Each structure stands twice: as C-alpha cells, then as structure tokens.
Records
---
Amino acid sequence: AQSVTQLGSHVSVSEGALVLLRCNYSSSVPPYLFWYVQYPNQGLQLLLKYTTGATLVKGINGFEAEFKKSETSFHLTKPSAHMSDAAEYFCAVSPSGGYQKVTFGTGTKLQVIP
Amino acid sequence: NAGVTQTPKFRILKIGQSMTLQCTQDMNHNYMYWYRQDPGMGLKLIYYSVGAGITDKGEVPNGYNVSRSTTEDFPLRLELAAPSQTSVYFCASRGQGTTNEKLFFGSGTQLSVL
C-alpha cells in the first residue's frame, strides 16, 4: 500500500522568496517519488523524480527536492519564486519497479505575489 | 511528436447518457492510465492497462469501462452518466523499464453531467 500527504492545499509566497511545498509518503516497499506541475487548463508535467542514488534531485525551472527516508518526506523547494511558478503541484509515489500504479497527493496550489 | 491526445476537450452530458472519452498515444508506450481530477482531491486512478488486451481496475472504477485493443488507444466508456462523474479526466502513458518512470499526460477532458 502507498499514500501521499501534501501539507497545505494553498501556499502563497512573495516573488523572490523561498518556495517550500511539503510532501510525506508511506510505502511498504522502496518508493519512487515524483513532483508534477499543472498549469491552468493543462495536463501534468514532470518536474523532477527520485528513483535511486543521490537523495537531492534537481528538476526543471530551478526546483529541487530531497528524499529523506528517515522522515518519509520529499519536500519541493526553490530558492527564489518567480511569477511563472504559479501553478498546482502534485507529489506522487509508486513502488520501485512497480509500473502499474502511481498514487498522487491532493495537490498544492502555489500563488506568487508580486 | 503529438504525445498523448485526448478528445473531446469539453462535453456536457445528460444523466443516463453514455459516451466514450478517446485517448491515443504515439510513443509506443505499454502502460496507459485514466485518472479523474476533482477539486481538492488530487488525481484518482480509474483504470490502467499494461499492454494491449490487458486492463485492470484502479481506485475508482465504478461506472466506467475500458478496452485496449491496440497499443496506441485506450478509450474510457461511461455507460450511464451520473452527476458524480462530473470531473476532469486525464489519460496518461509511460514506457517500460526502469528508465521510463515518467508519466506523459494528455491535456484533459472536462465533463459535466447535468
């Protein structure tokens, strides 16, 4: 069984401020972890992923996330928010090697205030 | 490269009507998925397929049916539409193998059942 919890359905930051979106997961086997971004009226796009190896992963648009097994967390960060970062962000988990099912969190809408 | 194509983009149904949401991908992906997205609920898996002729239920399959006669196509059928099926539907696909964990999403179908 696997699940994802995203803390905060809405997050507001000022332009230039740190972005921190929280994700905790549970999985009975070693997980693959993902962050996807959804812009208005579009499908989801992969931002970054962790499968194996280095626990700090870098994605597109300056985002990064760190896999912390002891905390079962995979928080998404960006040092300086840009207006174009306003979107909805989804954390997701799948079993390592398990191609069948990807479980998504409920999403966090990021608002960037000028 | 078209990726994952969904049709129609919008549809309004009356209660009890039926319809098929079309999904096709041109990446020769074995794995295909149907998700529904409801506000504040994230994405819920309806059905998935690991290859032509093979389908399986996800978290919320009731009221839906699928088929997978070819690698490219994965249509979702609603037989007796109900207001609870008002949602945004996303089709997704992924390749096979440990380097193909990324999901590719279509742009979605917004369905209203009145």
---
Amino acid sequence: QKEVEQNSGPLSVPEGAIASLNCTYSDRGSQSFFWYRQYSGKSPELIMSIYSNGDKEDGRFTAQLNKASQYVSLLIRDSQPSDSATYLCAVRMDSNYQLIWGAGTKLIIKP
Amino acid sequence: SAVISQKPSRDICQRGTSLTIQCQVDSQVTMMFWYRQQPGQSLTLIATANQGSEATYESGFVIDKFPISRPNLTFSTLTVSNMSPEDSSIYLCSVEDHRGNNDEQFFGPGTRLTVL
C-alpha cells in the first residue's frame, strides 16, 4: 500500500518566520514530488515540483527532497498571512501516472 | 499551464437525480482525471478519462454510478448518477501538462455539489 503521510496540523507560524512543512512517503520507487496549496473553498494549486535529491528554490518557497530518508519538505520564508492554506503533498512513481496524495497540512500564519 | 474550466461551479440537487459536470481545457491534453474531495479530506481519484475509450476507474468507483465521457482531447464530462446525500462533495477535473521531461497536474476550479 503506497502511502504519503503529512501532519494534519494546524501549524501556526508567526508572520515573517519560516514555515516548514514535511511529507514522508512509503514507496522507494517514487520519482516525482509535488506541493500544492489549497485555499478554503478553492481547488489545489501547484506551487512546487521536485524530481531529484537536494533543494529547489522558487521565490520564497524551497522544496527539499531526500530519497534515502523518503521525505520531502517545503519551506516558506518570510511567511505572510496570505500563505495561510492547506498544503498537500503528492507523490508519483515514473511508471504510474497516478498521484498519491497526503491528507494535507493546515498552515496558519499569525500577524 | 493549461486553463481549465468546469461547469457548473456549484449545484444543489435532489436525491435520486443525476448531474453532469463538464470540464473544458484550452489546449489538447492527453491525460484528464476526475477527483472527489469531501469536506476536510484530501483528494480521491475517481477515474482517468481516456480519449476514445472507456474511462479507467479506481477501486470503489463504478461506471454505472460515475459515467465519464471524453469525446476529444480538450473536453470531458463526469455524471454523478442516482445521487444520495453521501455524494455531496467537491468534484475536480485535472489535466496533465507535459513540460519537457516532467509531467505536472493542474486542476480546474471544481464543482461543489450538495445533495438533499
């Protein structure tokens, strides 16, 4: 059974601080990793994808992948109240187009 | 990324009726998917809509309950048949966009369904 685990939260972070979101996965064959942001009442929005070990930065967002330890994380620097949302982690094996979804972490940025 | 629209955006339906949800993409895409997201829950894949052939359904979902059409590479419909209150959910269409060697999924705005 392929699984993706996330802490459901809520994770409360003060404005301006770094928010750290974590995701672990069970399938060692997983090759593609995605972070989606979902505001309440809206559909998921892709914010980061990562395919190889290490860090990938895009503006205030950094995705970190460690395949040996089977975890992927998302760092949000200089957190803003507008970052308050649920963050979904999704994982896919190369040979299977299906995404395996985590339950999501609710992030609250406090002004 | 592809621009995806869904109709209707929301609906309130009576038990026992059916609702067809439309998904339109502004470019041709190979892969289209239908998901369900119940309140406070993560995403559950219902099926993959295959162009020119029958949809591929996930465990727990059947064609009689969720018939899907995919007449071309830019359009798909999902019907929720013989609805019950348990079908109240958000239904999401997604497409796979090929970027170089990487495939990423993007979502439509969703259809919020309430069954009374």
---
Amino acid sequence: EDQVTQSPEALRLQEGESSSLNCSYTVSGLRGLFWYRQDPGKGPEFLFTLYSAGEEKEKERLKATLTKKESFLHITAPKPEDSATYLCAVRNTGFQKLVFGTGTRLLVSP
Amino acid sequence: EAGVAQSPRYKIIEKRQSVAFWCNPISGHATLYWYQQILGQGPKLLIQFQNNGVVDDSQLPKDRFSAERLKGVDSTLKIQPAKLEDSAVYLCASSSRESYWGTEAFFGQGTRLTVV
C-alpha cells in the first residue's frame, strides 16, 4: 500500500532561520510527488510537482527536491507569512490515487 | 479561472442525522476527489471519480457514506446517519484528465462538519 511519512510533525523557526522538511514515500510506481501549503480554515494550495529523482523546483523562498525514496522542502530565510502546514502527496500508477502525508506544521516567529 | 466551489462552508448536525455536501469542480476537469481531513491529520481520500465513473472508493464507509457525480461535473457527498467521529473538514478537489505523468489537484475551501 502507498505510504507517505512527513517529518517533523511540527517545526518552529525564527525569521531568517533556514531549514528543511522531509517527505518519505513508498509507492507502487511514482507518477508525481506534490507539495501543498495549507493555511488554517482553507483547502490545500498547490506548490510544486516533482516527477523524477534529481528534479528540483523553486518558488520564492521554497525549493523542493526529489530522490527515489524521499523529497525535501527547503525553506531559505523564512518569514512569518510562511507559517502554515506543508503537505506532501504522491500519485501511483494504475488509477493514480493521490495519497497525502500527515503534514508538517511550520511556525515562523519574527 | 474559477476554482473549486464547495457548499456549505460550515454545518452542525446531531448524531444520526443526515447531511449532504456539494462540489463544483474547475471547468473541464475530468477527475474529482472527496477527502476527509480530521483536525491535525492529512487529507484521507474517500472517493475518486473519473468523469462519471468511480475509480477508487476503497476508504469510503459505504454503510453510511455515498457520493455521486452528476453528468461528469458536479458532485454530492452524503452521510446518513452521521456519527460523532465524522466531525471533520470535507475537501473536494479536481484535476485535469490524467496522463502518464499525474497532474496536480486543486482544492476547494472545504466544508467543516461538526456532529454533536
């Protein structure tokens, strides 16, 4: 069965303090790994798609990378507005189910 | 481009009552999903439609939950009768026709259900 494990569960950073979030996955044929941001009371907002090992995507202070077993979301010099829950999801072959991890709650203090 | 629309935003019901949620996906999106998100957890897939057909409902509690997608566009998710543990946010999402490489899904704001 496809599984996605995210760590840490929660992360507290000072403004400007860079760090990384981890997403480990087990999937029967990867057809995409997706990162989302979710603010309280809102639906997940799409950030990145990664398809193959070695691929990287960047957006402002965020960079996502992918290996054959895990993905990292690197946050460089975060700001308080980056505070949110970051969710990782994978699609498999076959019916391409979209399976989510439990997320990492990020809090950036000024 | 209009996003995924869901209604209502909030709903409070007593246990054993029934409730229905509505979703209108992004125009032209063939795939529609319903997820259940319990507080502090990631979204859990309940059912996935490809056009009118169900492609996965393995985690849908079929004794109380039902879903349909009308003419391959709008969808409704119903719970009857509701239990306390059904308290959660119900998220609808849609994505364009799947190719070999999976496409991203776009989410609505969700419906927060409280069962008392």
---
Amino acid sequence: AQSVTQLDSHVSVSEGTPVLLRCNYSSSYSPSLFWYVQHPNKGLQLLLKYTSAATLVKGINGFEAEFKKSETSFHLTKPSAHMSDAAEYFCVVSDPSGTSYGKLTFGQGTILTVHP
Amino acid sequence: NAGVMQNPRHLVRRRGQEARLRCSPMKGHSHVYWYRQLPEEGLKFMVYLQKENIIDESGMPKERFSAEFPKEGPSILRIQQVVRGDSAAYFCASSPLSSSYNEQFFGPGTRLTVL
C-alpha cells in the first residue's frame, strides 16, 4: 500500500522569499514521486517527477525537490516565490508494483499563498 | 498536440438524474484514468481503462457508477441517480503507458453540482 502526507495544508510566504512545501510518503516498493500544481478551477500540471534517477529533481518554474529515502520525504522548494506561484500543490506517489497499474495516490494538498 | 479534453466543464444535475462525463485522451495515449476530487480533499483514484477494457476499478463506488473506453470515441464516466454527495470535480488523465514511471496528463476536469 502507498500513501502520501503533506504536512501543511496552508503555506504563506512573501514574494521573493523561499518556498518549502513538505511531503512524506509511504510505499512498499521504490516509488515514483511527483509534484503537481493546480491553479483555481484549472486542471493539474506536472511540476517535476522522481523515478529513481538523480535524487535532486529540477522542475519547471524554478521548483525542485529532493528525494530522501532515509526520511521518506520529497519536499518541494523554490528559492524565490513569485505571485504567480499561488496555487494548490499536490505531492503524489505511484507504486511500480504489478497490481497498481501506475495509478496515482495524492496527498491532501497544500495551498500556497504569496503576499506582495 | 491537443491536451486531454473533458466535457462538459460544468454540469448541473438534480438528484436522481444521470450524469455523463466525457474524456478524450491525448493523441497516441491508450490509457485513461479517472479521479474524483471532493471539496477540501485531494484527488482519489476511481478507475483505470484501456481501449475496451476496464483494468482496475478498485476506486469506483459499487453502485451507480460505471466507466467505459470504447474502441472509437471518448471515455465515459456515467453516474446514475445522482445524489448530493456526488458533487465533486472529476478529472481524467491519460498516459501512453501504464508504467508508474510515466506521468499522467490531466484534463481540466468536469465540475458536477447536484442540486
């Protein structure tokens, strides 16, 4: 079984300051991990993915995440927040075991607010 | 290459009516996933289909819900005799393969409101 816990339901930062969105996962196997972003009333857009290659993953719009197996974490960071980053962010795990067929398990989401 | 398309974007139904949600995957993608997002919650897996086959429906409610992905045409998620608790955003995603290493591309969603 796989699960994802996003440790903060809301994060608020000032424009130009760093962003940290925390995620812990549980998986029986070596998982694939993703971060998706959802702007209001829009679909989901992939920010980045980890698939057992480099543990530091760079994504779009300056976001990156580091896979830490010992801590079962996959936190999302960005050095400097922009107003357009305000959205809801989902940490997602996919279990490569044979019965999961690639289906995704989502965290509860973290709403990021960026203040001017 | 057009992305995943879903229609309608918004759907209003009265209790007891039927809701039909359509999803056209990206060109070349033969794997379709449906997810439901209830208010204040993350997305939950419902069903995974390939052309003409339901592969995994472990997330589908046992009654009133059905899904298909015919050889020709879009995937359909059908909800019979809707109830207020069915109000949610329903997202479709497609993938060229079923591997967990492949990202899924999401459509804009259908927001269902049951009055």
